[in-house]
Known about the structure:
Layout: H1 2-11, H2 19-33, H3 37-47, H4 53-72, H5 85-96, H6 105-125, H7 133-144, E1 151-154, H8 159-164, H9 175-181, H10 186-193, E2 200-203, H11 211-224, E3 225-231, E4 234-239
Parallel strand pairs: 1-2
Antiparallel strand pairs: 2-4, 3-4
Helix pairs in contact: 1-9, 3-4, 3-5, 4-5, 10-11
Amino acid sequence: xxxxxxxxxxxxxxxxxxxNHRRSLFVAAVIHxxxxxAPVVLVWAFARRRxxxxxxxxxxxxxxxxxxxxxxxxxxxxxxxVEAVVPVAIMxxxxxxxxxxxxxxxxxxxxxxxxxxxxxxxxQGLDDTTSxxxxxxxxxxxxxxRPGDTLTxxxxxxxxxxxxxxxxxYPYLWxxxxxxxxxxxxxxxxxxxxxxxxxWIVDWGRPSFPAPVLQQLRNDVExxxxxxxxxxxxxxxxxxxxxxxxxxxxxxxxxxxxxxGAVTQTPPAVTTASVAKPAISPMSRP
Length: 286
């Protein structure tokens, strides 16, 4: 939780890069999901003395803490709502336990609405195509990696590291943790210059740090790495002096299918440090 507080302070200083749009989508998700019916029904059950004070105030405190945690996250991503699943489910269960005459009508109607809305959104989501770039990149690297290889994403999309089955010597695989706990990227720069530098680097081109910091990062990468592939629009680097086969990219789904395509673009062969390197891509170009 201390990290969340530090992150909230940092996020408050950011310019709006889609935050208002995400906030609007977040509010729409809360309303359309019907989850707000659960606390309403719980209040009704308490007012009608169908729920004990201990149960009511315990759930109310839990829900308040959950709401505060979600709002304090600052990013307003839809998946933040997962935190509310447990208290909302218990509220619904308590309300559904009311079985006295007409008192069962409101919980039954609320439950039916929530289930109907949930199933409707689930069916609509079947046609949605999510990005598969992280999985495609990780799978391609896994096919050519050797025991002991490591992989670091710069920055975000940690699913590439997971799909590759490799560890990362740099702990901050998402942008926000790096911004909060390594704001000048001094820890990353020390890693890239040291003996435990990652074997592979994937550049996600996200301008999330000040220009001087990013320039130094580009210098560090250029000093010890060379480009070996572009998969789903993302550049893959291999540390100089190492010899690996070229990662062969598979098809990409979603928006990343148009950001470099399904075809892996590579030099004729994986090079070593003795061969001239291609120009470093605009890693998080400011």
